[in-house]
C-alpha cells in the first residue's frame, strides 16, 4: 500500500476505531498533527489519571492512565547560559510508552513544551497537573517562564525532592499565582 | 426471491452502483448489522440497493463475509499477528483504493469484524511513528476536501434513508398481505358492513 493514506477522509466511526487501536503515546503524537486530529481524539473521551511535570536538568512529563507515557524535552545548545534559564523550545523530544523500551524520537518538533502539555490536558480532559516535581536544589528554570509553560492548569501538588526551603523565594511566590499547593 | 425466515441457503440479490446485481447468502449478509436492522425480519421483494458502492467492492466485502460465516461471534479486534493466512492474503491483495472502498462499504454495512480488522491494519501503519512521520502518512485534507467530505456524508445519509424507506415499504406490504390473518380481515370487513347496515336501518 502507498505511504500516503487519507486517514481523515475515513468515515467517523472507522477513524475512531483506528485511533482506539493506537497506543496512547501515538494518540498524543497524532493529536499534535492538526486541529482536526486533536478534536477527533478529544471526542473519543479517553482518560488519564495523573499528570506529572518534572524539572531537573531538563523538563519531563509523565502520564499515568490506561497506558503509561514519558516525554523528555531536551534543549538545544542555546539554552546553556547562566541560570535560571527560560523554559526552552525543545530541540529534541523523546517519547516512551511505559510498557516497552521503544522510544519515539522527535527532532526539532516545532511544538513548545506548553503546547505539548496543553494538548495532553485537552485531549484527555485533564485540566490539572497533579504533581509538579522539582528535582534540583534550585530550580534551573526561570519561574515566570515555568508558570507560562504550566499555563492555566491547576497544580494540585508540588514536590521538592531536595529541601523546598532552598527553592528561590521569588519562585514560590510566582508559582502561587498558579494555584500551587505546597505538599 | 427472499423470505423473512432466512436460512443459510437463502440468497439475496444485491445491487451495486453500476446497476449490476449479484447473489449473496443470507448467512453472509447477516454479518451486516445494517442489513439485520433493515431487512432480516421482513425480507426484500427486489434487489437490495447498496448503490453507493461498486460491484468489485461489494463482492470483496461479501467474499470476506462468506469466508467468516462459520467463525465464532466477533468479540473485539484480533491482533494482526493472529490473523489466518487467508485473512492476510485477503488484505494483502488489495491495493489502497480498494482497501479504502472496502472500509467505507464495511463501515456503511456495519460489519464489525471486517471494519475493525481494516482499522487495526491502518493503526499498524502509524505504529512507532512520531507526529511528523504521521503527517507524511495520513495526508491531511484541505478545506475544500473537508467540504467535499461533508457533501459525501450528506449524500450517504440520503442513500441510507432511501434504503430505510424501501425497507419500511416492504415491511408495510408484508404486514398487510402476509401477517394479517385472513380471519381478521374477514371480521374487519364484516364489522364495517354491519355498521353500514345499522346506520341504514336507523334512518
Automatic annotation (TrEMBL), chain A:
InterPro entries: F-box_dom (IPR001810), Zygotic_Embryogenesis-Asso (IPR053222). It comes from the Eukaryota. Residues 4-51 form the F-box domain. The lineage of its organism: Eukaryota, Metazoa, Ecdysozoa, Nematoda, Chromadorea. This is F-box domain-containing protein. Transmembrane segments: none annotated.
Automatic annotation (TrEMBL), chain B:
Keywords: Ubl conjugation pathway. Pfam families: Skp1, Skp1_POZ. Residues 14-69 form the SKP1 component POZ domain. Coiled coil: none annotated. GO terms for biological process: ubiquitin-dependent protein catabolic process. Residues 113-159 form the SKP1 component dimerisation domain. Belongs to the SKP1 family. This is Skp1-related protein.
